[in-house]
Amino acid sequence: MAVGPDTLQRMLPVAGFKLGTASAGIKTPGRLDLVLMEIAEDSTVAGVFTKNAFCAAPVQICKRHLEVASPRYLLVNTGNANAGTGQQGYQDAILSCESVAGLTATQDAEVLPFSTGVIGEKLPVEKIVAALPQAQADLKEAGWERAASGILTTDTRPKGSSVQIEYQSQSITLTGISKGSGMIKPNMATMLGYVATDAAIAQPLLQQLLTQATDKSFNRITVDSDTSTNDSCILVATGQSGIEVSAQEPELLQLFSSALEELMQYLAHAIVRDGEGATKFVTVQVDEAATQDEALAVAFDIAHSPLVKTALFASDPNWGRILAVVGRAGVENLDIDALEIYLGDVRIVSAGGRDANYTEEAGQAVMDQEEICIRVVLHRGEVSETVWTTDLSQEYVSINADYRS
Known about the structure:
It is a single chain. The protein has two domains: 17-273, L-amino peptidase D-ALA esterase/amidase, CATH 3.60.70; 281-401, Ubiquitin-like (UB roll), CATH 3.10.20.340. The chain has eleven helices and 15 strands. The mean pLDDT is 96. The two termini are 20 Å apart. The chain has helices at residues 57-68, 86-104, 125-137, 144-150, 203-215, 250-273, 292-304, 306-313, 319-328, 360-367, 394-401, and strands at residues 17-22, 34-39, 44-49, 73-78, 111-116, 159-167, 170-179, 192-197, 232-237, 281-289, 340-343, 346-350, 353-354, 371-377, 383-390. It is globular. The strands form three sheets. The chain has a six-stranded mixed sheet with strand order 13-12-11-14-10-15.
């Protein structure tokens, strides 16, 4: 179950970035579950990672390797998160890196490992090592579509897209894939995301651009308010277009920054649309807040409320549930007579209660839609923030109750 058409957008190859996909049989025999990505020499790489204190072994190693080397390979496995696995999990992730390095004549510190799947189970590293030659043989710049399928877990569809920038008769390509469906309330990025561009960008600026785009995309989505142990997002700049993005070209920098945010928002929205058991794609917008923290607190409290989310699943215009969440969101000195709440274009709350012109029929017409906007106008300042979420269905419960069986 997912919201919107099941159509994978065209993904353009990025010069200097290759992807190879294989089946290692980590959890399900025959399923694509291993992806190897090759990064051209002299590329720059940036990353953001989960802030969960129980971050998985591969996350720990990624951070360490990024500090000491310039990555040449990314290795992704699904079916097993290699999280909560202690020293054994760390050693298994290192062995995966060493195996890639031995196969490609690189150093193990030049390999970044990523895992996603069940927490607390030993990584079947021998299966990964055995399938690596198959993934290496599949490496190609046009390998995005197979890789988008190879990184999925409970997802029902692959997620990917491309954006191109035209600047002074030259073009820059950005392409990315993501995965995620449940355990989604990122606190840095998404479950897993990989974006590459053929622009040349110095590493400090690349990191800044990734962090900024993450904060407006993956850090603004939630399915179930759970932050994963394995969240990771990587941005690679190969430089092979010959076009440099830098602060010395502010017009190009702005174009690139906007394109990156557009791409990453698309990938983030795709995760919400494919949220476990989702039947609704919900935008929660808070306008005229005093601060960003205040706006996000109200937006996320609405997006996380089980009562609101179940009403959304039932297409029930039970507006009192939204009103109650806004009231408990912790906004200091909230003037309830001044704020307004909307379902789509229908004002449901004003002057401290049900809007005088609101009708149940108007609210029902909005709730019957597959895509819904809940908008709160606080009338306290000039800050606006938007969060994207899903409803909460019986299928979500079933998926997660049966996850390990």
